[in-house]
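Title: Request for sanity check on ABC transporter ATP-binding protein prediction

Description:
We are preparing a figure and want to confirm that the structure record we downloaded matches what your pipeline produces today. Could someone re-run it with the sequence below and paste the raw structure tokens into this thread? We only need the token string, no images.
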Amino acid sequence: MIQVEQLHLTFGAGTPLENHALRGINLSIPEGQFVTVIGSNGAGKSTFLNSLAGEVIADQGQIFIDEQDVTLWPTNKRAGLVARVFQDPLAGTCEALSIEENMALALKRGQSRGLSRSIRSEYRELFRERLSRLGLGLEQRLGDRMGLLSGGQRQAVSLLMATLQPMKILLLDEHTAALDPKTAAFVLELTRSIIEEQNLTALMVTHSMRQALDVGDRTLMLHEGNIAFDVQGDERKGLDVPDLLALFSRNKGEELSDDSLLLG
Ligand SMILES: Nc1ncnc2c1ncn2[C@@H]1O[C@H](COP(=O)(O)OP(=O)(O)OP(=O)(O)O)[C@@H](O)[C@H]1O
């Protein structure tokens, strides 16, 4: 469960480059809900995810995860609660390390213990079991360097790594955008099944309005650092891309000028 109250964040406050990126976001997401997040370039989507992950700390407002006030917690303290997968398949893994070393690091996320002691036979079995569900044969390649894997294989492993240890909140920042359509569909289906199996609360940023409606339980649109609309349940069912555009115009009193949102 995520509760966000009056969240504000300004970059470069008091300088000529001052940018009020988050402007009083209020949001409540129940446990197990899968929320898709859309919005034009610069709307504040990544900044919002960064604030949930603890990578940036809000200037005002509060964030609660499972009723704990995590507003001032740094990233490492939130590691047992929040995990992320980024757009760039290279971002979530270390290419010089093997698949099993990467997975061992993921298992130790937020802890200070070293890597060498962590790869034990019991973990290998767990890694093999998780990798085998991908159907990519990676369970036979535990010792291969991550750098040998394709972008889609790496992104699938990143997703497994993010969800390897118990956690509550999964943040996906356009994690399929750099993949070809077939691989993107595979990673998206994997995402869906992991979220469902582990009953995770998830936010997925996408630049495709179509994908935002096809996936998950609820769709939010951010605009200029705040929520322009928020649809779920019966209201969301049956909505099409033009309906989202109309919803935006109705709520904000302006037309959406960013065509990139219609992609996909
Ligand atoms: N570290 C930073 N320092 C200064 N300004 C920043 C920083 N990070 C983001 N911003 C600014 O905050 C605003 C929101 O950026 P953010 O990256 O959250 O947008 P976004 O909705 O994710 O956009 P995109 O779809 O282009 O990724 C933008 O104006 C951006 O330039």
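Thanks, this matches our download. Residues 2-94+170-258 form a domain with the Rossmann fold fold (CATH 3.40.50.300).
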